[in-house]
Amino acid sequence: MTENPLISIIIPARNAEEFILRCLNSVLLASHDLSLEVILILNGCQDKTVEFASVFCKDLPLKMQIHESTLGPAAARNIGIKMAKGTWLYFLDADDLIPDGALGKHLELMTASKSDVLVGSYFKSSNEMSKSSHLLDGAIKFNSSNLKEYILKYVYEPYLYTMPVHCWGKLYLRRSIISAGILFNEKLDQLEDVNFNFSLLLKDLTFEYTDQILYQYHINSGPNSLSTQSGNDPNALEKIQAAYIPVQRLLEKWEAAGTIDTASNYTAHLFATTSLLWLIRVGKKFGSQNWAVCRFLISQIVNNPELRRSLLLYRKMPGTSRVIPFLVKLKLSSFLCVYFKIIAIIKRLPYTK
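Below the sequence we write its predicted structure tokens.
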């Protein structure tokens, strides 16, 4: 029996009235000559997202599920996976776009591929557009050798080598996801897509890459952005550890096979790197948020015992601060607060030559 070549597009949305019209319009433009179902999970919306999305009910095969409470991206995507009927799953964030012709190209490549997941290059847009290729060249079908090489680079510089990071910009073979029994970890509100993809890698699902542009990611610095909210949770570092469990297990698998040394050293560096990034994001809020709140969050991060152990194995990355890790190692929370406050003040000063 031939499978229905249907693509299930899953879109979680919360207070996305600023973006949802252009997002769904990009889906509409992409829908020509394709078989789609669009699953929109609206959760905790207190603006006009639902009203704006409803405009597309006549033009798109749109299934809207509305939840009064805030579900989080992981739970919303899991609902979408369970509702999906398509051969392929495609995750789209409500503030992002599908570039013209990209979905058809994605489908064409995936149909010819024997892989479970197809990853594309993407545009990053804020004030200007730039291309991101996950620091990969050409088309690559990952095997045990080149995957290990790439993942070790990711562990060292996780925000440069991003192929296994995001769930968007990828087309997933739904039957492989279902067979693997993998869903998003609903206890995570960030890094849930990293956790998801590495869980798939642990199940030996295969990834393939194309350098063709297949997604447009919008850099959202608004208050509803998850990146903006990084570090706001006092338990943020514990959640980072939980998110990276499948990364750790994959590295331990390679260590047991004798292909790498000391998996724990790699995961310690990855944990420290991400924790320091969360710390910097909290520090950036000193210009707009309450001093006491920021100081509390910074103290929580600096005094985390696991971070302190991990910093012993942290290796400074190119272009990163030497000051911040130094102050963390010395447990100088107050000095860090002053440092971030000064930076915030400097950034508010008018530019002078």
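The domain at 7-218 is CATH 3.90.550.10 (Spore Coat Polysaccharide Biosynthesis Protein SpsA; Chain A).
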